[in-house]
Amino acid sequence: MKTYDFAVVGGGLVGSAIAYGLAKAGHRVAVLDEGDVAYRASRGNFGLVWVQGKGLEMPSYSQWSMSSASLWPSLSEELWDLTDVATQHQAPGGVHLCYSQREMDLRQADLTSLAKATGGQFDFAMLDHQQLREMIPEIGESVAGASWSRWDGHANPLYLLRGLHAGFLRCGGTFLPGSKVHRVHQRGDSFVIEREGERVQAERVVLAAGLGNRLLAPQVGLHAPLVPNRGEILVTERMRPLLNLPTTYLRQTGEGSILMGDSHEDVGFDEGTETPVLSHIAQRAVRALPALANTRIVRTWGALRVMTPDGYPLYQASLSHPGAFVACCHSGVTLAAAHAKRLAPWIAGDSLPSEIAPFTAERFDVQTVIPA
Amino acid sequence: MFKRLSLPDAPAQKTVIVYFDGRQVTAQDGDTIAAALLSAGVEACRTTPVSGSPRGPYCMMGVCFECLVEVDDIPNVQGCQVLVKDGMQIRSQHGARRLG
């Protein structure tokens, strides 16, 4: 049996970015991808490369996101050079819309504490209605203002995934689609990854199977207590440009469609859509941009976010099974550049990026505070 | 390019007159806009928003969005999903739709 340097379980955005980073550095890498029956969060996401507001309780998440946002242009360029796939990445800054003065005040307080917690690295500005209108001339009257951050941007997540896959293959990676991995175990110095009708052997294994990590991680001494969280998205017909920068739940794609979304629903593994939720998303979009009132929705879908108990990523090397790693997060687009350029080198043996030191599973253990 | 089939048992259909970019087009009651345009020899009814390349009806079942036209001033109408009506003003959809 051929032995790879690395086997990456999961061909979504997290697995593909890591696999691409490893293959580009010259390692022999196989990606095992389940197929269309998997939950495939990477095919259903919104496409923001987003920083503002992230990491309110954990500033290192903000720093990790900023690192990725900074590396995004070079990732996008190198994928273009390698594969001719354009991710449509743009970083014009982004806004979070507020509908009342109270929302503005709360937002300002949150982002001020985030700026402080990151030593000023994260910066932002509050825009009143008039200032926002200068940026987005067609903004609705009922929008009070917005927070703006230069760190934010967006990309086409499907082209990103395609670019990562193509780049991975271009760098000599082996893509093994087909079926679900059900068993991972260590044998001697290497790992055996088993799935229906096939065994793959690798010196090291990276579990990047999204929600599937829940069952795989314990097999190599890791813990991935993940839960699904559903987001529903609506997409309109293509139309003339009217929104030149992304917002938290509304963006216009390179082709002219408007994507709207950002529901957060605890509905188990149900990937469907519900009319009241879609209706709420659409109404909010029309408040933000009244010109959308009579446009057509051409498609709606639901997708499941991969959520840890606190919403932050999980990256960990196994102590009991050296050479096994787990990586999961719900921001596969934003973090793609950090995963390819900083996480992959760590997995290959470099030192741990300091921002991600807190992202191990021990933080989910029962915590006891002993009163002084 | 397309020829209307005459089925032996089909009842005769009423003639419907529509206009495509100002030109009179003779269709039959029950035709979709896309079918009427194809049978009138129209190959391209829109240009794409991204590259501006010309496109015409393709899937005829509401999926591909290649048959977009403006119908009585409403942009981005799927021609294969709407039946012709007498006097309908159909226009080519040039690029991305306008708004309000």
Automatic annotation (TrEMBL), chain A:
<dbReference type="GO" id="GO:0005737">
    <property type="term" value="C:cytoplasm"/>
</dbReference>
<dbReference type="InterPro" id="IPR006076">
    <property type="entry name" value="FAD-dep_OxRdtase"/>
</dbReference>
<dbReference type="GO" id="GO:0016491">
    <property type="term" value="F:oxidoreductase activity"/>
</dbReference>
<dbReference type="Pfam" id="PF01266">
    <property type="entry name" value="DAO"/>
</dbReference>
<dbReference type="InterPro" id="IPR036188">
    <property type="entry name" value="FAD/NAD-bd_sf"/>
</dbReference>
<feature type="domain" description="FAD dependent oxidoreductase">
    <location>
        <begin position="5"/>
        <end position="344"/>
    </location>
</feature>
<keyword id="KW-0560">Oxidoreductase</keyword>
<protein>
    <submittedName>
        <fullName>Glycine/D-amino acid oxidase</fullName>
    </submittedName>
</protein>
Automatic annotation (TrEMBL), chain B:
<dbReference type="InterPro" id="IPR036010">
    <property type="entry name" value="2Fe-2S_ferredoxin-like_sf"/>
</dbReference>
<dbReference type="InterPro" id="IPR001041">
    <property type="entry name" value="2Fe-2S_ferredoxin-type"/>
</dbReference>
<dbReference type="Pfam" id="PF13510">
    <property type="entry name" value="Fer2_4"/>
</dbReference>
<keyword id="KW-0560">Oxidoreductase</keyword>
<protein>
    <submittedName>
        <fullName>2Fe-2S iron-sulfur cluster binding domain-containing protein</fullName>
    </submittedName>
</protein>
<dbReference type="GO" id="GO:0016491">
    <property type="term" value="F:oxidoreductase activity"/>
</dbReference>
<dbReference type="GO" id="GO:0051536">
    <property type="term" value="F:iron-sulfur cluster binding"/>
</dbReference>
<dbReference type="InterPro" id="IPR042204">
    <property type="entry name" value="2Fe-2S-bd_N"/>
</dbReference>
